[in-house]
Amino acid sequence: VFGLSSVAQVVLGRGDFGQHLSINLGFGIGVTLGIHAAGGISGAHLNAAITLTHCLLGNLPWRKLPAYLIGQFLGSFVAAATVFGLYYDALYDYTKGNFTVSGPNATASIFSTYPAPYVSLLGGFFTEFTATVMLLLGILIIHDEKNNEALKGTQALLTGILVLGIGLGMGMNTGYALNPSRDLPPRIFTAIAGWGMDVFTAGHHWWWIPVAAPVLGSLAGVIIHKLFIDLHNQPVLDSGNEKGQPVVQTS
């Protein structure tokens, strides 16, 4: 809701009610609050790609996958419907009732991501893949108890800032979906709500890129963290015992 409504305000307000930064802040705030809301209940699985990665690595039982995916997809679909209702009058004023995916008054990008006109499918795939790699690396570093983990209670805020940083640096090409459950359900909603099947054919059938690329990027991020950080971490206690010296904690 925070993310999509911030996009709606920028698009429908024709730049008078926010810019690129406000969209990134909206998504960052939404992620932060989502983690606070669901962290203690389910671990705050807000991203289908990350949930699937946890199942593949054995960190989450496969029997729980359907419940997580249903929750993510339903929440995202309802969010799109909520923003549609919130800005229904503004949408009609902006488009004169003609909801389009492309053109000067296109509004489908309020709800789902679409590539910039200059971006190829390969370039878009690489953008989404790389951005998701950075997302996973950031999340793993923030929660890495063997390393310099974030202070307790700050993880949600730092994850929101991480999303903000990805949007600021890697949002121009594709709108940084990073998450199948953030992109696909609103796309389905727009197909139902008046934009039609163009939402699936636009951008050379772009719709599958925000589904597949984040899954592969999530797996790659975990592997990179394991190979270049986790395998080389030695707890301070073990290091001190090996040398036969008392362990001294430093801040």
Automatic annotation (TrEMBL):
<dbReference type="GO" id="GO:0016323">
    <property type="term" value="C:basolateral plasma membrane"/>
</dbReference>
<keyword id="KW-0813">Transport</keyword>
<keyword id="KW-0472">Membrane</keyword>
<dbReference type="InterPro" id="IPR050363">
    <property type="entry name" value="MIP/Aquaporin"/>
</dbReference>
<dbReference type="InterPro" id="IPR000425">
    <property type="entry name" value="MIP"/>
</dbReference>
<feature type="transmembrane region" description="Helical">
    <location>
        <begin position="67"/>
        <end position="88"/>
    </location>
</feature>
<dbReference type="Pfam" id="PF00230">
    <property type="entry name" value="MIP"/>
</dbReference>
<keyword id="KW-1133">Transmembrane helix</keyword>
<protein>
    <submittedName>
        <fullName>AQP7 protein</fullName>
    </submittedName>
</protein>
<dbReference type="GO" id="GO:0015254">
    <property type="term" value="F:glycerol channel activity"/>
</dbReference>
<feature type="transmembrane region" description="Helical">
    <location>
        <begin position="154"/>
        <end position="178"/>
    </location>
</feature>
<keyword id="KW-0812">Transmembrane</keyword>
<dbReference type="GO" id="GO:0015204">
    <property type="term" value="F:urea transmembrane transporter activity"/>
</dbReference>
<feature type="transmembrane region" description="Helical">
    <location>
        <begin position="118"/>
        <end position="142"/>
    </location>
</feature>
<feature type="transmembrane region" description="Helical">
    <location>
        <begin position="205"/>
        <end position="224"/>
    </location>
</feature>
<dbReference type="InterPro" id="IPR023271">
    <property type="entry name" value="Aquaporin-like"/>
</dbReference>
<dbReference type="GO" id="GO:0015250">
    <property type="term" value="F:water channel activity"/>
</dbReference>
<comment type="similarity">
    <text>Belongs to the MIP/aquaporin (TC 1.A.8) family.</text>
</comment>
